[in-house]
Design brief:
The chain is built from 7 helices and no strands. With 182 residues, the protein is mainly alpha-helical. It has a domain of 123 residues. The two termini are 25 Å apart.
């Protein structure tokens, strides 16, 4: 199990982490922005974390004789997810200090525009602007806060969902059964 978890987790994590460096020029030239980058980011997460499915299936077919419980599938899948999420968060830290310098300032401007556009009144706008300013300062100054947000809020929920779906599907031995040796 260890080898499967490491191989699939590392591949998924490398794909996730590479996204920051591949898309940085697209941010710089304006192709990606805060309105459309979410689709690219979450699309990449779903594609790369689909390796959870393939890792659990490989474990089921090659090490469990084609039969796996939900708990066993969940364990393999969540370990793959954790490795991928760790690499994703570490890659963001590297990108944040290299190819994505100034991201916090741009994100802050974007949120400020959204708050000004959507606030119900002046009081609400001022409160939300102040809260946003505090959050951006914390995000910019605290590795722990930034890492935690990146890991737990951005990518982990996607991996958890894929892990749950995978474990539920693959516990059925008739769902994509292992092929018989020739």
């Amino acid at each position: 199990m260890r080898k499967i978890v490491l191989v699939y987790g590392l591949i998924a994590g490398v794909i996730l982490g590479a996204m920051f460096f591949v898309t940085a020029p697209l941010w710089d030239n304006g192709t990606l922005n805060f309105d459309n980058a979410m689709y690219v980011g979450y699309g990449t997460m779903v594609v790369s974390l689909s390796l959870v499915f393939f890792g659990v299936k490989s474990y089921r077919d090659n090490h469990k004789n084609g039969i796996i419980t939900f708990g066993q599938g969940f364990k393999v899948g969540i370990l793959i997810t954790l490795i991928a999420c760790l690499l994703y968060a570490l890659s963001w830290e590297l990108a944040y200090h290299t190819v994505s310098k100034g991201f916090t300032a741009e994100m802050s401007k974007h949120y400020e525009q959204e708050i000004r556009k959507n606030a119900a009144n002046e009081v609400e706008m001022k409160e939300k602007l102040e809260q946003s300013k505090k959050e951006m300062e914390l995000y910019d100054s605290s590795f722990i806060f930034r890492f935690t947000i990146t890991f737990l809020v951005e990518v982990f929920p996607v991996g958890l969902l894929i892990t749950l779906i995978t474990a539920a599907l693959l516990r059925n031995k008739n769902f994509l059964p292992a092929s018989e040796p020739a």
